[in-house]
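Example 3.
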Amino acid sequence: MKPSTMFTGLSAFPLTPLTDAGIDEPAFERLVARVAAAGVDSICVLGSTGSYAYLDRAERARAVELAMAGAGNVPVLAGVGALRTRDVLRHVEDAQECGASGVLLAPMSYQPLGDDEVFGLYEDVTANLSVPLVVYDNPTTTRVVFSDELHARIAQLPGVLSIKIPPVPADPEQAKVRVSSLRAGLPGHVTIGVSGDGAAAAGLLAGCDAWYSVIAGILPEPCLAITRAATAGNADLARSLSMDLEPLWQLMARFGSYRVASAVAEDLGLVSAGNLPAPVQGLDGNGRAAVARALEEMKIPG
Amino acid sequence: MKPSTMFTGLSAFPLTPLTDAGIDEPAFERLVARVAAAGVDSICVLGSTGSYAYLDRAERARAVELAMAGAGNVPVLAGVGALRTRDVLRHVEDAQECGASGVLLAPMSYQPLGDDEVFGLYEDVTANLSVPLVVYDNPTTTRVVFSDELHARIAQLPGVLSIKIPPVPADPEQAKVRVSSLRAGLPGHVTIGVSGDGAAAAGLLAGCDAWYSVIAGILPEPCLAITRAATAGNADLARSLSMDLEPLWQLMARFGSYRVASAVAEDLGLVSAGNLPAPVQGLDGNGRAAVARALEEMKIPG
């Protein structure tokens, strides 16, 4: 089996802007339509950036439904994670019924999980899947640390077609070692996608097949340019285009990509204030001012 | 305001045994009735041991309802934590409607939370409360690390009457320093309850007012004996009674109190196999054998 093109290139992770009443549907539809029009390779709604962990079943199903309507021909992936396997299976069922092309699954945890428990989750879910699955490795939010051995075990399960990994090291040689070491244990049809937007050029140049991108949900064009340059083997251009966004990478390192993405979208008028789920708060005044300065420095019109 | 007796002494945290279909209601009712009959000072359902994080709104409301019916005159506290403030407020509403005497709130997190976000959660929830609240400080599951300053800020909020803290140091002097340091910032009416059952005698002897206990949900009598000895100032007896349960404390240190409590209850015939929410798994064969040996060593009949 060859790698699916759906799990290569640039995947954009839009925010799910929220209001007190639920999803800000018009704003969400605009975000999805914007990235689809830009020509990204896939759209993943309900990622961490899409606040999946905070949404109930009905809200999640609605988000997938809206995304399907707005994405045109661009494949839509949907995050389906939950603390309990039972709920993951419900979200999978809903995503499939809405027509999602694939699902993204992070092993959320409350009680810390052992490797056999994480494997058991993926085993139970893939046994009930009719679309491909992306394994979502995000220790900052799930507190699950994947070893390469655990990735290799899970990647053998039917339907697993990609792994979304945390940022690779900035050093090109170390990044290559990281990606090759993981890839050595994977079947050939499983792609590796990098996350941590500031590390994306490094990841793609080190051999990652995809970039699972937070900021592409808001600024798809510069992310597409980086992706196309890197996958064409034009390392200098990819690095230089990534350097152009350095003020953004610095903000994300300082405040986290979730809150920064929300503030950028707000600054650009794409979403309203108060779009994150309490108790999570948006950036404070200083943070917002730093975002505005960064956008100005990068000549991204507010 | 003087400390409430509801937040002193021994609080038992029963498991919420689960089946594929939902809560094992007869088993849960038996667990609650057993600890009530033993004469514990309060019963806290839907703590971490009570699997609150894995249950939906209807299951949680049902658990409180069942507990109220089985607890007799013993006050019932209910865990109300959720990742989103909106959902916490719903659980609070349900717990109050069912007649719970208080609520227990841990700041669950997916996106890591800052101190202002944690404070904001407690601020929003206490503004909507008609019963007292216990602040639940459990970094292993929530990944929120409370400073004493944060505790002091939250303890000023109306309705906050107790704090459930992680294990104190085993060394008596260090334990006293820990408890006094926290207490120095708290209003006089806010009690401190220790958790981590192996550290309970040390915590009570170091000045904690309460023991929020996992194992008292299954073995209330020996826990009551430890609590009564410690609060009567009989340090040697309290330590010696705690030492009698050392095999259990060792198992909890090795496998975690949640999975050990489930296995002990299963060994004693109080709950059925498979009572934890997937992806969490019960102890494997070796773990179960160790539990059986420990119970035998402690002369607790299986």
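Residues 5-234 of chain A form a domain with the TIM Barrel fold (CATH 3.20.20.70). The first helix of chain A runs from residue 25 to 38.
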